[in-house]
Design brief:
The complex is a heterodimer of chains A (224) and B (98). Chain A is α/β, with parallel strands linked by helices and 224 residues long. Chain A has 6 helices and 9 strands. The radius of gyration of chain B is 14 Å and the shape is globular. The two termini of chain B are 24 Å apart. Classes of the chains: A alpha/beta (224), B mainly alpha (98).
């Protein structure tokens, strides 16, 4: 089901964002906090494939877009980590979520009051480091010299475009210190449990039905 | 204790080669036979359109995790990324504490 949901953006204005959901009013309702930025594209199909399998297993799931993501009218550069956390908490309440499935950096947004799973969680510093590195490599290829230290200093004060994503200074400062925290009832599902390499590593988006099967089975199994 | 240091280092070299080929297979979506066919002069960054700067950054981060090394900005140059042999030589030197 493709629908919309309302959420306050960084400026406090309420906007409409996309919602992909399998909602059949069943008792278990999983809020999905997806991967971010480049990894969001690479893991999108995998994420929805897991949701389709959860649907078949009798489990509802909700994948809300946050302000600044995908087709949002809100600007990404004005978003903050704190704002996105509030957005995911609001989503949990609006959808009546009973559990959370956080994917990669999505673990930074997992509402602490929900039990659930962090799949291959990624920290803020590692997320930034990968994107900064991509930028310095691209710059070097183009004959320019950029250093990670100088880019981070600029990012902290003025914001930075990384991998095509314009990130505000507040977001960069927050990400530098953001570590995923396991709340009570939450556990980590490591990539090794899925029996293949992480799809975020792939140079191009791909899918792997066996990995989707494995993640959905782990979730359904831990609820049984 | 290794009775034969040459054999031991050959085994370590083979293990590194396998680890690195596996990693490139994970990034490029190669099957094991294609990955095994990677040669020292097989082209990487700048030769494969899908291997862009973001994919290379991911590859280097995963190398750090899997090999237990830290790759500094200054380490990264065109030569080490251009061919499989360049990347292997870089990883070997890093592991040797260079």
């Amino acid at each position: 089901m493709i629908a919309a949901w309302s959420v306050a953006g960084a400026d406090g204005a309420v906007g409409e964002e996309l919602l992909l959901a399998f909602d059949r009013a069943r008792p278990v309702r999983v809020l999905v906090c997806p991967a971010w930025f480049d990894e969001a594209n690479k893991l999108r199909r995998f994420t929805v494939e897991v949701m389709r399998r959860l649907d078949k297993a009798g489990i509802d799931s909700f994948l809300p877009d946050l302000p600044g993501c995908n087709d949002s009218l809100a600007k990404l550069e004005t978003q903050t980590l704190g704002g996105w956390r509030e957005g995911m908490s609001a989503a949990a309440h609006v959808f009546g979520a009973t559990h959370v499935l956080a994917i990669r950096a999505g673990a930074l947004l997992a509402p602490a009051h929900l039990p659930g799973w962090h799949y291959a969680p990624q920290s803020g510093p590692k997320t930034l480091r990968g994107m900064i590195r991509a930028r310095t490599i691209a710059a070097r290829e183009a004959g320019r010299e950029e250093t990670a230290e100088a880019l981070m200093a600029l990012g902290r004060s003025k914001g930075l475009v990384l991998g095509g994503w314009p990130l505000g200074a507040a977001m960069i400062r927050e990400l530098e210190r953001a570590e995923p925290e396991l709340a009570e009832g939450q556990s980590v599902i490591a990539q090794s449990a899925l029996g293949g390499p992480g799809l975020w590593l792939r140079a191009e988006p791909d899918e792997d039905p066996r990995q989707s099967d494995a993640l959905a089975a782990i979730i359904a199994g831990s609820l049984a | 204790m290794n009775a034969n240091p040459t054999l031991a280092s050959e085994a370590a070299e083979a293990a590194l080669d396998q680890e690195l080929k596996g990693l490139i297979a994970d990034v490029l979506g190669l099957d094991p036979a294609q990955a095994a066919a990677l040669a020292p002069d097989s082209g990487l960054f700048g030769h494969l359109p899908e291997l862009d700067s973001m994919a290379v950054a991911g590859l280097l981060t995963e190398m750090e995790d899997r090999l237990g090394i830290v790759i500094e900005d200054d380490d990264v140059d065109g030569e080490m990324l251009e061919t499989y042999g360049g990347l292997l030589a870089f990883a070997r030197a890093k592991l040797a504490g260079d």
